User: Which sequence fits this backbone?
């Protein structure tokens, strides 16, 4: 019996360590109440968040709480009640929040509890506000377009200066005495 107990402790310690590693790698965590989702819906949720580099894990609240405490993750205690799933977010947390918010709106069985983004707690209103923002890819595209316009104008202006300089040099060559 003692052997089973120590094996269970080792298994729990390994699970906590695995959760800690996922927390460290994630740009954020979204806590979900997925208790009423069936297996097919959970699989579908995993499929739709995969392109955002996020992953989903149904967690034991006690083990997740211990992992969060060990990683000094603030204020997640209220979200670790009842059946909990955690979305570990990838490099673009806004894109993942958009997908999760949309999925929750389409599936009444899924409820968002809250999130930690950049180690700051975000409530449901904050998640909805984040979902309304353009994603990282959209922001990069907008920035590149704005920069491209600036470079195009600068190139056109520089080209205009060169043309004027060439015309001035041609005029100066006409006026210069022939040697």
Assistant:
């Amino acid at each position: 019996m003692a052997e089973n107990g120590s094996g269970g402790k080792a298994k729990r310690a390994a699970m906590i360590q695995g959760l800690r590693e996922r927390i460290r790698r994630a740009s954020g965590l979204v806590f979900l109440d997925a208790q009423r989702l069936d297996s097919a819906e959970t699989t579908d949720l995993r499929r739709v968040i995969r392109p955002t580099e996020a992953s989903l894990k149904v967690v034991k609240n006690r083990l997740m709480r211990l992992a969060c405490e060990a990683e000094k993750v603030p204020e997640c205690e209220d979200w670790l009640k009842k059946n909990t799933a955690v979305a570990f977010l990838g490099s673009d947390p806004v894109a993942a929040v958009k997908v999760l918010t949309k999925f929750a709106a389409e599936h009444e069985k899924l409820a968002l509890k809250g999130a930690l983004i950049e180690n700051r707690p975000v409530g449901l209103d904050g998640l909805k506000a984040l979902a309304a923002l353009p994603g990282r890819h959209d922001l990069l595209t907008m920035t590149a377009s704005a920069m491209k316009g600036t470079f195009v104008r600068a190139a056109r202006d520089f080209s205009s200066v060169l043309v004027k300089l060439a015309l001035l040099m041609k005029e100066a060559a006409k006026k210069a005495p022939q040697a």
Summary: The longest strand covers residues 111-117. The two ends are 110 Å apart (CA to CA). Residues 148 and 154 are 10 Å apart (CA to CA).
